[in-house]
């Protein structure tokens, strides 16, 4: 099993890890415990030394009595609102059923639904959770700071392509397991002020990390027509990408989600709008993927985390669209074959490459979950396992 070096106390603000985002903040789930005060009100403190913007000294509430304000940057006295139903929780629990201890990396912590379930099932495991969204970290800190699992998580504000740096910065030698649950959370999609959805009128933002990076407005108003058309086609298979790009350029400046949706809808022929859900859905997804560089950073992130798995440890990845699923499949296959592309039956120079990992067949959610959780409908779970030293010799 892996050697789990002692973690740096979570209340210490660490210097920025190379490749991480500007904040580099430590969030301690220990300090996020809520308690009943004498008046019977539930309250608590986020005592985040060097905490994320706006969290220091905040009074919080427990997740079950949150105000459903839809405000992701909640004010004093209100804890973060985080509606998100984690996908394939039972299947992921089964993948990691034999975790004996060590550090588990959740590279897309979100509201910590998966993370909390894994911590509850494995009392000897410590969680290292990262997310690029400060609002997600605030919600996760609250979630992981209560009950039996409190005090067993270290949370970091970082992009997952900096995961290896974060792991090394914590003095962790290897990982007992890792999870990537890709894409956006329901919280991000549903928060009216984040600009991810055509359903709410909001400034064109769409950044998962609200502290840095270009916004959707920068892309929609700044890219030339050909580049816009290419990104819409590449990230969403939108058939009308060129017409939409031309309409966007003609309508500039576009500053709100509703304006953007109206221009997209107007660019698609009426007959084509009648099926396939909201006509702006695919273009919104494409712009979101571009804003957050989702596909560009995925491959290096997966490769670096795979390299940090202890013998016998597994990496599970949940994808929600074909572009990201293709990358996950390629990375796992390349790890399995050692980069050899020769047909398996033929002798070749790379036949001697020892397989270091084993890839499991992809899985999808069951019918009941697909019915009850719309987000699960497009989900696909891929798992790769680093073969233990004994396994590699067989
Ligand atoms: C689908 S949600 C994860 C939900 C989580 N599994 C749960 O149980 O609540 C995806 C999360 O990953 C985060 N995320 C997406 N891309 C990221 C990246 N490149 N680096 C770090 N976090 C990322 C998003 O901000 C979001 O909070």
Q: Kindly report the average pLDDT value.
A: 80
Helix content: 25-40%
The quaternary state of the protein chains shown equals single chain
Which second-level CATH architecture of the largest domain applies? 3-Layer(aba) Sandwich
- The percent range for strand residues is 5-15%
Number of helices: 14
Query: Could you say what the CATH topology of the largest domain is called?
Result: Rossmann fold
Written as H for each helix and E for each strand, in order along the chain, the element string is EEEEHEHEHEHEHHHHHHHEHEHEH
The total number of structural domains is 2
Topology:
Elements: E1 26-28, E2 34-36, E3 42-46, E4 58-59, H1 89-95, E5 102-106, H2 113-121, E6 125-131, H3 134-144, E7 153-157, H4 163-169, E8 175-181, H5 186-190, H6 216-222, H7 225-236, H8 241-251, H9 257-267, H10 281-291, H11 298-307, E9 309-319, H12 322-337, E10 357-359, H13 367-372, E11 380-386, H14 389-393
Parallel strand pairs: 5-6, 5-8, 6-7, 8-9
Antiparallel strand pairs: 1-7, 2-3, 3-4, 9-11, 10-11
Helix pairs in contact: 7-8, 7-10, 8-9, 11-12
The structure holds S-adenosylmethionine (SAM).
S-adenosylmethionine (SAM) binds next to α2 and β6.
